[in-house]
Write a structure and sequence with these properties.
This protein has 341 residues and is an alpha+beta fold. It is 30% helix and 26% strand. The radius of gyration is 21 Å and the shape is globular. The model has no long low-confidence stretch (mean pLDDT 95).
């Protein structure tokens, strides 16, 4: 979207401040779906708990593969982590190649904190979420920050896709739309997946923006597809009076579309709203078949619980915030609600 996305905290002034004044002001720690359980000398895969700073996940994976003499695709991870931050996450590779050379692996800004074998390879998405520590500097209004945090704790966080999803200049969504309109073909498989996902994400953000404005972001509506926390089971809302207490208690939340032929369809007013977004973008729902496996379709929570863990202000213009988010959600969305930027 070219226009700014609406904020849940729009009625509260932004607290102001600088984010990422240095990489040390942003820490991300992966919350794994499971821990490696293998005994030394057994199991095929080696999990490495890696701390990095100033390096992307792909940077470390490539360096590790090169050092151990294996193909880059043999090094896997559950999720990509920010380059301009201090991050901790698991990487995984074949134990018979990694273990003999692990002690001699060296890369500036990278430390292997521990390792363990496991019977299964680590795959993308094998994580519960991420824990964040964020420091904001030159904060103007600590009271506004606290008020925004309280609202987010009560209502949940709008589950927008962050700007980084859309690439430099935000052009990836338009590229994904063009791929669908041309029959689904693209010269590069990685780019194809990236661009198609960006287009789905942009449409989701547009639906969420409308529902934030019309007040149905956290309201039970007949025909809506509700999604259970935390495992994600889906069902169509038949009786809003019955389901609203479950929404209020964060047992379930309304969902938005990642359009595709396998997506569970809403009915009534919600279906009309989602159809209107497609019409505005002049895209036919049937074209998502052209994306194949990349655009099968799914539902995504419109909001997520704010796993608030603490707030400190060591000085009058510095704020340190600690929180957790589910996998696939963005810390930058939380900060945008606070900063109003």
């Amino acid at each position: 979207m070219t226009e700014p996305l609406p904020r849940l905290t729009a009625s509260i002034p932004g607290c102001g401040g600088l984010f990422k004044a240095s990489p040390d002001d942003f820490e991300v720690e992966e919350l794994p779906a499971y821990e490696p359980q293998g005994e030394p000398g057994s199991d095929e895969h080696l999990f490495l708990w890696v701390e990095k700073k100033g390096r992307s996940t792909q940077d470390v994976a490539k360096a590790l593969a090169r050092h151990c003499g294996i193909n880059e695709r043999d090094v896997s991870w559950a999720g990509l982590k920010d380059r301009d931050a201090v991050t901790r996450q698991y990487l995984c590779g074949p134990a018979r190649f990694l273990e003999p050379k692990l002690a001699s692996f060296s890369m500036e800004g990278v430390r292997v904190l521990r390792s363990a074998r496991h019977k299964n390879k680590l795959k993308s998405g094998h994580l519960h979420g991420n824990r964040f520590r964020v420091v904001l500097r030159e904060v103007k209004d600590l009271g506004a920050a606290r008020a925004s945090i309280e609202l987010l704790k009560r209502s949940g966080i709008p589950n927008y896709f962050g700007e980084q999803r859309f690439g430099l200049g935000g052009l990836n969504a338009a590229r994904g739309k063009a791929i669908l309109e041309k029959g689904g073909k693209h010269r590069d498989r990685f780019e194809r997946k990236l661009f198609l996902s960006a287009f789905q994400s942009d449409l989701f953000n547009r639906v969420l923006a409308k529902r934030l404005v019309d007040g149905s972001f956290a309201r039970a509506v007949a025909g809506d597809v509700l999604k259970r926390h935390p495992l994600g089971g889906e069902f169509v809302c038949e009786d809003p009076a019955v389901e609203q207490p479950r929404i209020d208690g964060f047992e379930v939340s309304p969902s938005g579309p990642l359009f595709g032929p396998e997506m569970k369809q809403p009915t009534g007013a919600i279906a009309a709203l989602e159809d209107a977004v497609l019409a505005e973008q002049k895209i036919d729902r049937a074209l998502f078949v052209n994306g194949g496996d990349e655009t099968r379709g799914a539902r995504r929570w419109l909001r997520i619980p704010f796993g608030f863990e603490g707030l400190e202000s060591p000085t009058s213009d510095v704020l340190e915030l600690r929180f957790t988010l589910p996998a696939g959600s963005y810390a930058t969305v939380v900060l945008r609600e606070l900063l109003a930027g």
